[in-house]
Every structure is written in structure tokens, then in C-alpha cells.
Amino acid sequence: MGKVKIFDTTLRDGEQSPGVSLNIEEKLEIAHQLAKLNVDVIEAGFPIASDGDFAAVRAIAKEVEGPVITGLARATKRDIDRAWEALKFSDKPRIHTFIATSDIHMEYKLKKTPEEVLESAVEAVEYAKGYVKDIEFSAEDAFRSDKDFLCKLFTAVIEAGATVINIPDTVGYATPQEFGKLIKYIRENVSNINEVTISVHCHNDLGMAVANSLAAVENGAEQVECAVNGIGERAGNTALEEVVMALNTRQDYYDELSDITLKEIYKTSKLVSSLTGMSVQPNKAIVGKNAFAHEAGIHQDGVIKERTTYEIMDAQIIGLSENKIVLGKHSGRHAFKERLTELGYKLEGENLNRTFKRFKELADKKKKITDRDLEALVEDEIHTIPQAYELIAIQVTNGNQVFPTATVRVKLNDDVITESAYCEGGPIDVIYRTIDRITGLDCNLESYAIDAITSGKDALGEVIVKLKYKDDLFIGRGVSIDVIEASAKAYMNAVNKILYENKELIESKGDA
Ligand SMILES: CC(=O)SCCNC(=O)CCNC(=O)[C@H](O)C(C)(C)COP(=O)(O)OP(=O)(O)OC[C@H]1O[C@@H](n2cnc3c(N)ncnc32)[C@H](O)[C@@H]1OP(=O)(O)O
Ligand SMILES: CC(C)C(=O)C(=O)O
């Protein structure tokens, strides 16, 4: 059985998804989870892109052990210097440098001849090699590049010291057969190819990123670049969970496996979705909420008689589990903690007490507490940044003949209690305007999304909002059985993130 290396680019290409912006703490949390998932490589960011990205790559390089840590750099000395400054703290650093090789990119974007591009690629690899042994070189838009130029360039960068050559389908144009053929062609026409790892990086513009990556594996690719939940630029990247589970479920066909710890897949997907604010579509393969659900009677009958009649994978393999202990309003802290541990969460002290209190409140309102309810509560708890404002109470009156009115009471810095009210707008709008009136922040609601996390009339609702403050987007998440409360919590969560990133705002409030 061969081994396919999993190169995770959730924190670099994944973060290039429009509207996604992760802060250092969030990136670190995802990176730690990726290490638990046992990916081979974490692409932690693009250090030259911003001071924040640089700091996140450096923090991950310092803290996260296990996987190789890499960061992206254009084929320039400045980018490579900056990447190395961040990566040098890792015990397994890799510099990932790239340049585009298709005629269209070389002519219009780079304004360079093929000879100049080849020279820049070789110089970049040689320069990066001065810092570290492990160098990945990517030929951006490789699929639309002239095959023979590509082979000539790969031969040259391998001679210059590249250890991994990456073949991207940058714009998601390839079909599986064609992409497989390209990998075979490169294997057969790059004389020194056996000295390096062959990697692929596919985009999903035509919905074929996973199929193309697997076709590449069939033709000799040894590393697949992917992102959790398939997030990334435009229609996204190859979905990590889909490639990994295809290899696992169809070992008989591929004869290749990854080293991924499968039972961490579901949890990683939830974490990424919650921190990026990008919901997973219900019918998404592997991690969508319908992926293991059966609605049709004939299917339900089949599954009850024998699970494998309609399930090709066991949900428990990816970390989705059945309730063994039924948790409800009569459950105690031990059973609660035990169940959380089984689900892979370690909550102690104050965090445990607060979550337990919320669990009891929920159990009073909801008959059956499912694992998904628990996950929602815990995620709400562990992803909270320091709360400058704490929501104490909200009251909204609404009806088809009255103006909605909201009253909101908050506590500032564990101390001052402020209350305000507002009338006019929709029932959610009035809450948000009331909160704005209290905080005095001039921010814009860019998007609002609501979803039921669990099923039934008493389902937990999850609200995700994106607030724009100055030029930055802040994602807030709130969970409650009451969607009005979930909406208020999500907004407050985003406001607290704004204050956390702009500490001077809160200091001036404290002084006042
Ligand atoms: C396919 C991919 O996913 S590649 C990664 C894409 N990711 C990103 O772009 C996210 C991060 N990017 C950024 O923050 C910014 O674009 C930066 C900091 C990298 C550069 O910003 P700016 O200096 O303002 O340049 P801008 O982005 O407008 O243009 C890119 C420049 O890099 C050049 N360039 C692009 N790719 C490369 C490369 N691989 N090697 C060398 N130069 C390159 C372009 O030709 C252009 O040069 P020009 O200014 O001489 O015309
Ligand atoms: C830089 C490379 C790997 C890339 O992201 C792409 O080509 O899509």
C-alpha cells in the first residue's frame, strides 16, 4: 500500500476565500487541530501578505509540532526572506516558492518571457536553499502551461535544489483524464523527477478538484494539497476530507492511504466552519449534516436491517458518534464531562462550569440533548475571546401591527451595567441598533446567516454575522434555542472581536 502525503492549505489558500479572515489565535487553534488530524504539511500563510499573516505563521512555526510547517513566497528575495523569518522557528520548516508558467500569466500578469520566468524560478529556489533544505516549488497555472516548457522548468528547479515540485490546476480547468495524463507526462519527461516528491494542487471551478487530485494520485502524485471543507479561492480547493475518505473507502482500488487520523475529521470540519464563518452545505460529502442521514423509508428500513445497505462509510470513523449516555436535565457534571471527553473536548474549571450551566438551561427547554447540541455549546465556549461586553438580557416586542422595540442590557468589563432601547426596523435590526447605541461603534453588518444545528422544533439555532469595521471583517457566532438570542450573541461576539483587535477603543471606554 502506498502513502499519499496530505498538505493542508486551509490557513493559506483556504483563507483566500472571499470574506474569510482569521486572527492569530484562530489560526493557531486550527493549526493545532490540523496537527491532531496528523496532516503531513501545514501551509500556515503567506508571510509577506501582512504583518498579521507573518505573525500567525511565526506563531504556528514556534508552537505547532509534528507536521512540516510551510509558508508561501513569490519568486522574489523579499518574499523568501520574509517567509524564512517566520518559518525558521519550526523544527520542520519548508519554504514554498512559486511563479506562473502559462503563456497567459507570463505575458499579461508577470510581463516576462519564458526564459525570464525560468531564470526567476531557479534563482528563487537557489536563494531559498541558502536558508533551508526543504523547498517546494509550484508552477502556478501549470495545467494551462506548455508541457515541454513545464518539464524544462521542473528539471531546472530540481537541479537548483527543490525537494517538492507542485503541479497546480490553478483555475480548475482540467478534467480528471487530462490531469492524470499531465502527471504521467511530467514523470516520464523530467529526467531528475525521482529525486523529488510530486505534488498536486487543484481548484474546484468545475467541481472536479477532488476527482483531478485522485486521478493525479493514480498517475504517480505523492502529495495532495487540499483544504478542510474544500474552502479556498473562488470555488475552493480540493476538499481534504473527501480525498482522504476516498482513499480510505476505496483502498481496494487506489492501493494508497494517507496518515490522517480519521476520527478527527468531523471535529476539524466543525472548527474550520465555525471560525471562518463558512457554513458547510448540508449535502456536502463526508461532513455535511445529511451525509449520514436517511430520509426515505426504503433506505431507513435497509439501514436498520443492515447499515451497509445504504452506507459505504461508518459515520463513527470520522468522529461522528451515537449517544451512548442519554444526557438530559437530570444529568450531572460527571456524565457531562465524560461525554465531552468522548467527543474529544477537554473542558476544565470555569469553562466547564459555564458550559455545564448552559447545558442545564438547554436541557430545561429541550427534551433530548444530542451530541451536536453539545458540540455547539462547547464551540461557543472555547472560541470566545475575552468579552469586553457581556450580554445580560434582551427583550424584543414585535408584531405585525407594532414597531419592533428592543431593550438590551450588557455588562462592560465585568463591571458597569448599561441598558438601552431602540424602536424601528426589523426585530433583529432593532437589537443590532440598540447594541450599536450602547457600544458607540460605527460598524456595518455585511452578512447574516441562520441555520438550525440540530433537528426538531426545539433545535439549536446558529447565527453567523460578518461585521465590517474600518477595512476589516469580523465574524461573530451565536448559538441558542431562541434565534433572537442567537442573533444578539453573534453580533456581540463580533463586537467583542473588534474591541479585542482595537484595544484602544475599550481602554477609552474604561476611562470614561
Ligand atoms: C494562485 C495563488 O493562490 S497565488 C497566491 C495568491 N494570494 C495572494 O495574493 C494573497 C496575498 N497577497 C497579497 O497580500 C499581495 O498581493 C502581495 C503583498 C503579495 C503583493 O501586493 P502588491 O505588492 O501590492 O502587488 P499586487 O498584489 O497588486 O501585484 C502582484 C505583483 O506580484 C507579481 N507576481 C505575482 N506572482 C509572482 C511570483 N510568483 N513571483 C514574482 N512576482 C510575482 C505580479 O506580477 C505583480 O507585480 P507588479 O507589481 O510588478 O505588476
Ligand atoms: C501558489 C499555488 C500553489 C496556488 O495556490 C495555485 O496555483 O492555485
Automatic annotation (TrEMBL):
| Reaction equations catalysed | 3-methyl-2-oxobutanoate + acetyl-CoA + H2O = (2S)-2-isopropylmalate + CoA + H(+)
Cite the SUPFAM superfamilies for this sequence: 2-isopropylmalate synthase LeuA, allosteric (dimerisation) domain, Aldolase
Which residue ranges are recorded for the region named Regulatory domain?
Answer: 390-512
Which residues belong to any copy of the Pyruvate carboxyltransferase domain? 4-266
Q: In which pathway does it act?
A: Amino-acid biosynthesis; L-leucine biosynthesis; L-leucine from 3-methyl-2-oxobutanoate: step 1/4
- What is one Gene Ontology biological process annotated in the Swiss-Prot or TrEMBL record? L-leucine biosynthetic process
User: Which Gene Ontology CC terms are recorded?
Assistant: cytoplasm
Lineage, top-rank taxon, reads: Bacteria
E.C. number: 2.3.3.13
Cofactor(s) the record lists: Mn(2+)
Keywords tagged on the record: Amino-acid biosynthesis, Branched-chain amino acid biosynthesis, Cytoplasm, Leucine biosynthesis, Manganese, Metal-binding, Transferase
What InterPro entries has UniProt attached to this entry?
A: 2-IPM_HCS-like, 2-isopropylmalate_synth_dimer, AIPM/Hcit_synth_CS, Aldolase_TIM, LeuA/HCS_post-cat, LeuA_allosteric_dom_sf, LeuA_bact_synth, PYR_CT
The UniProt subunit note reads as follows: Homodimer.
Name the family the entry cites. Answer: Belongs to the alpha-IPM synthase/homocitrate synthase family. LeuA type 1 subfamily.
What is the role of the protein in this entry? Catalyzes the condensation of the acetyl group of acetyl-CoA with 3-methyl-2-oxobutanoate (2-ketoisovalerate) to form 3-carboxy-3-hydroxy-4-methylpentanoate (2-isopropylmalate).
The name this protein goes by in its record: 2-isopropylmalate synthase
| Originating organism | Selenihalanaerobacter shriftii
